[in-house]
Amino acid sequence: MPEHERPRLASERRVEDFWSDRAHGAAGRILTGATLAFADLGYHGASTREIAARSGMSPAAVYIHFESKEDLFLRIATEGHRASTAAFIDPAGLATDPSTKLRLAITSFAAWNADMHILSRMIEYEMRLHGGERFSDVARLRRGVEQFLRSLLEEGVSTGAFDVPDPEGMKILILSFCIDVARWYHHDFRRSPTAIGVQYADLALSLVLKH
Amino acid sequence: MPEHERPRLASERRVEDFWSDRAHGAAGRILTGATLAFADLGYHGASTREIAARSGMSPAAVYIHFESKEDLFLRIATEGHRASTAAFIDPAGLATDPSTKLRLAITSFAAWNADMHILSRMIEYEMRLHGGERFSDVARLRRGVEQFLRSLLEEGVSTGAFDVPDPEGMKILILSFCIDVARWYHHDFRRSPTAIGVQYADLALSLVLKH
DNA sequence: CCGATCTCTAAGCATATGCTTAGCACGTTG
DNA sequence: CAACGTGCTAAGCATATGCTTAGAGATCGG
């Protein structure tokens, strides 16, 4: 059985599910194959032939749905960052006080980085190879998450709920350990993505709450 | 002025210094050029011509000192992991009680990952492309750090200094935020690598100490 | 049933890539 | 000074790569 036809692992199925919600038919299969190829081999290591093979198509078929390899990557990076950002920001909208907002945001964000670790890691590792105007949307999304967390911390300080002498440093620290989940997590891990989310939210709150 | 001849940034000079202690003459220049090229462009994105240009040599000259591109990478990964491991484990030898050992280890390790962020990140991001027998030394070094920290936590629990219900989870968490320093740190950051080291050691101790 | 359209493949083009070969300059040694 | 070894370069080889072209098969409206 050729590599690209073996049964999907749990982690890979999460990538498949991600794209089945966001693209139909051949485009979805290509986006799935490309995400997995980029994740396994790196951007330059994943040839268009490899991506095509993992999508079950010929190399030329890819170019009917996407203008170029970079275009494919841009699409994956954009949708990936959109989902990651939404995982952080959207749940916080359900609460009004800073503590609950932070708890909801971190629970969801850390869980997303565990559950979607292939996509998250691929985005994080390969984005540095792609700067410039074309990727300004992605850069905006990244700044959005940072600003949202920064504001949340400052809000907590001003209401007296949080004790954070250095909000900028705390923002970096919290985002850092959440994002890094994608580097080490895998779906055979003894704890579920949700359990990671809860653990990390407890950690974040213990760092910022007055004691 | 061509790209490979512009003055080195502070971060790049740290790479240069690293290799000047570990290789002489042309080999050192090649290892420096290759480390920077791999870091900027990824393993497959860094062509042997690019590496040669950054070393100020012709492509063929590289092959006098190294058998292949993968050989070059293996050398960088091995020496990088050796230094990273030493930064973690060696300082702990100066103390006997678990708390001080942990403080020394984390201070040094987090500072190393900040100071050497180009090398550390390059190792972390590109190693996943290289498994197999040839890289077993690197894998052994990585396991060594994990086992050392795990033992340190268990020692602290058994002497009564630490309160850690889940040493495996704590090990992962502490290594995670230390390693991730390399992803976001840069030498224009408002705090020095040493300051990061101290901050992170405080954080690690606050997580494990009885309170 | 015919033509149009949409999706895909086989083959190919130009260039980039990892690595090799042949040879040159230069310092050292007999 | 000649012979040699060392560290390098220019040029080249075989293959891999991103992408294009020409055309095949299937589907659908008229």
UniProtKB/TrEMBL annotation, chains A, B:
Domain HTH tetR-type: 24-84
Residue range(s) of DNA binding per entry: 47-66
Keywords: DNA-binding
Protein name as catalogued: TetR/AcrR family transcriptional regulator
Organism from which the protein derives: Aeromicrobium halocynthiae
